[in-house]
Write a structure and sequence with these properties.
It contains 19 helices and 28 strands. It is of the alpha/beta class. Bound molecules: adenosine-5'-diphosphate and zinc ion.
């Protein structure tokens, strides 16, 4: 007997022999200890081969890579040393998903395994007991009378046991209640995964799900300790819980008998992992549902253009909630033209400031978003115009006042600012632009006596710090909450009647074909935090570009109008959903090598790229457009010079073939690091 073992490393499986005495214990999905290089490693049995005479009988699904592996290593197979689990540790369905992810994202099953399973299970480290305490007293769920729209959606979902639904419901229309009911309606032995984009949003979901599911719900996110992750994983695998709520990696929950996956705010970019294994949890969830023949709910107030397009075409089922609960009105949205507005402070218009003061006076809460952390994004010499750039990245450094440092938000390195300009020795150095720290300073000065909190990456490093801020908001211990986009999403605070964006321009000016879509989603989300209780809400959006077309639709809560306009643009340029993209990123140690090698790459590819839409022989498949190589918008990160190629085409398989073809053409090249991003979300 021999087995193919997958380790949590960036590789496909390795083949080992099995000593006779271990044979009875060998099961697909069980962990084993096996010699690896000069040491030992814990891995997973991916498949088993019964060897009889010369024949190899394959007893589980295998990839070509496995077979090659098996053939090549036939001669000297090392033996497995020990089997660590009596029961398969990873269920068969999850192993299949892991394999799918490795292939689809042009990565490896090993790297997918590493992302799917808590590392503690492979290190042999003792995990220890854990105690996860969120809320002391779990409140009982209130029994709600469903609205007609909610009832219709739920009966549609409950009437089938497979298929994909898009629940498109305005902010505050009660989507969470639909998720809860759909899970409750599952057969008793079926489990559910609920994916949320960020921990910051999870806090209130945790309470609502705890109230409804008590002990049978667990939470899974990166803020957990090793011990906690292990405990939660075990509970799921042993069928002790019915629901998991988590971010990205919860899509790999080791349930045996899954019935439903919910993806809340499916359009969120944070479902995509930006390095290493570049998978999208939403798309992985859709693949998992397909593999296991179960249903999926995509929920959103502002669906991705892709999801809405597929809903319109009938590929997925569309359920709409047009009304807020209790027919509450959506907030009035004011777009504030900052080119005309009077200001008493650097970042707040008088209009917004007055509104904030008024709100404070009447004991309501306010939410302010500024999607940039730090104090000032431009620390500039006004004599010569010099700004500080990161020595390792082609990025302007952001001044952080609390630490008095200039920080790079990409690589984490920092400089200490000088009193004299390092370029002209001038002394007139200015802080231009606003980050959350500066906005905090200004708001505190302008409105002394209010209870203020800032929520951004810098204030939420500690475990459960998000949760505490959300709790304080709920308990009305905070009057004004200011933060990056993490304040905009998901929260349900009935006493927030005012929400505001300090600088809409940050979102509008991203160099990405999705920037308008993202901006609309973000502003709609933020506006949607206001007026969820009995008192109607208002939203103020400050911008230097008030005539931008996005605002016409944000102002009128007109997602469909926006879709109509935007989908035409996408069609003209043949961007998703009318095509698929695949991005190949090349990184080099020096600018010179980059220039030289890219020229060669370009020549080799150009020679073989077919004229569209013809098929080419042994070259890049027809219908695939090759854009680049071109310098990436951020040319240098962590001392690596970056170029990219973007492949565009209708057929996912042809796209991957094209990528393989290109990689094949350049595999002899040295001094180059290559990353592949299938369905990229970030083009920087
Ligand atoms: P969404 O996710 O669509 O923004 P939520 O699910 O957060 O909306 O619901 C908004 C609020 O309305 C929550 O406080 C929720 O408890 C409440 N709610 C949901 N459904 C009902 C209902 N049928 N009757 C009364 N309140 C409801
Ligand atoms: Zn840097």
């Amino acid at each position: 007997m021999q087995v193919n073992i997958l380790f949590p490393i960036n590789a496909e499986s390795f083949t080992y022999s099995v000593p006779e005495e271990l044979e009875p214990e060998i099961k697909t999905g069980a962990r084993v200890l096996a010699p690896f290089k000069r040491g030992k490693k814990v891995g997973i049995i991916q498949s088993i081969e019964q060897t009889r005479g010369h024949k190899t009988v394959v007893s589980s699904q295998k990839t070509d890579a496995d077979l090659n592996n098996g053939l090549r290593k036939k001669i000297i197979l090392k033996p497995v040393e020990a089997v660590l689990d009596d029961e398969p540790f990873i269920p068969e369905n999850l192993l299949q998903l892991i394999q799918w992810v490795g292939q689809y994202y042009m990565s490896t099953s090993g790297l997918a395994l590493k992302n799917a399973v808590p590392s503690a299970f492979f290190t042999g480290k003792k995990a220890g007991k854990s105690r996860i305490v969120y809320d002391e007293e779990v409140k009982k769920a209130k029994a709600l009378d469903l609205t007609d729209e909610q009832s219709n959606a739920i009966s549609a979902i409950n009437s089938v046991d497979k298929g994909v639904f898009l629940v498109h419901g305005v902010t505050g229309s009660g989507k969470t209640e639909i998720y809860i009911r759909a899970i409750k309606a599952l057969p008793p032995d079926r489990e559910a995964i609920v994916l949320v984009p960020e921990i910051a949003i999870t806090a209130q979901m945790i309470d609502r799900f705890s109230a409804n599911f008590g002990e049978s719900v667990v939470f899974f996110h990166s803020g957990l300790s090793i011990g906690e992750r292990v405990t939660q994983w075990r509970k799921m695998r042993n069928g002790e819980v019915k629901v998991v709520i988590g971010v990205r990696s919860a899509v790999f929950a080791p349930f045996n008998n899954l019935g439903l996956i919910v993806i809340d705010e499916e359009q969120e970019a944070s479902y995509k992992q930006f390095d290493g294994l570049r998978y999208n949890a939403r798309d992985t969830a859709l693949a998992r549902a397909q593999l296991e023949g179960i249903k999926v709910i995509l929920g959103s107030a502002t669906p991705s253009l892709e999801a809405y397009y597929h809903a319109k075409s009938g590929k997925i089922r569309y359920l709409e909630l047009t009304q807020r609960i209790e027919q509450r009105p959506l907030p009035r949205v004011d777009i504030i033209d900052m080119t005309k507005e009077e200001k008493q402070s650097f970042s707040l218009s008088n209009k917004l400031l007055d509104a904030l003061k008024e709100n404070l006076g009447s004991n309501y809460q306010s939410l302010i978003m500024l999607n940039r952390r730090g104090y000032s994004p431009f620390f500039m010499c006004t004599d010569c115009g010099h700004t500080y750039k990161c020595p390792a990245c082609s990025i302007t450094l952001i001044y952080h006042k609390d630490t008095n440092t200039l920080n790079c938000h990409y690589c984490g390195s920092y400089l200490n600012p000088q009193d004299l300009c390092p370029n002209c020795k001038g002394t007139r150095i200015k802080y231009l632009g606003t980050g959350t720290q500066r906005a905090e300073e200004e708001i505190r000065q302008l409105m002394p006596g209010m209870a203020f909190k800032r929520m951004d990456k810098d204030t939420t490093q500690k475990k459960l710090s998000h949760y505490r801020i959300i709790k304080q908001m709920e308990e009305k211990k905070i009057d004004v909450l200011l933060g990056t986009q993490m304040v905009a999403k998901g929260h349900d605070f009935p006493d927030v009647t005012l929400s505001a964006v300090i600088s809409a321009d940050i979102a509008l000016n991203m160099p990405d074909f999705r920037s308008a879509e993202r901006a609309l989603q973000l502003f709609t989300q933020l506006a949607g935090r206001a007026g969820r209780g009995e008192v109607p809400g208002r939203a103020y959006i400050q911008t230097y570009e008030p005539e931008h077309y996005v605002f016409d639709y944000v102002r009128n809560h007109d997602y469909k109008g926006f879709y109509k306009k935007e989908i035409e643009l996408r069609k003209e340029l043949s961007y998703p959903p009318f095509s698929r993209l695949l991005r190949i990123i090349f990184s080099f140690k020096t600018r010179d090598t980059a220039g030289k090698i890219v020229k060669v790459i370009s020549n080799r590819i150009r020679k073989t790229a077919p004229p569209l839409p013809a098929m080419s022989k042994g070259g890049i498949p027809g219908g695939i457009e090759v854009l680049g190589p071109a310098p990436a918008p951020i040319e240098k990160i962590r001392n690596l010079w970056r170029w990219h190629i973007i492949l565009k085409g209708k057929n996912a398989k042809a796209l991957r073939q094209a990528a393989v073809f290109i990689l094949e053409k350049i595999k002899d090249m040295k001094e180059i690091k290559i990353d592949i991003d299938v369905d990229p979300i970030n083009m920087l």
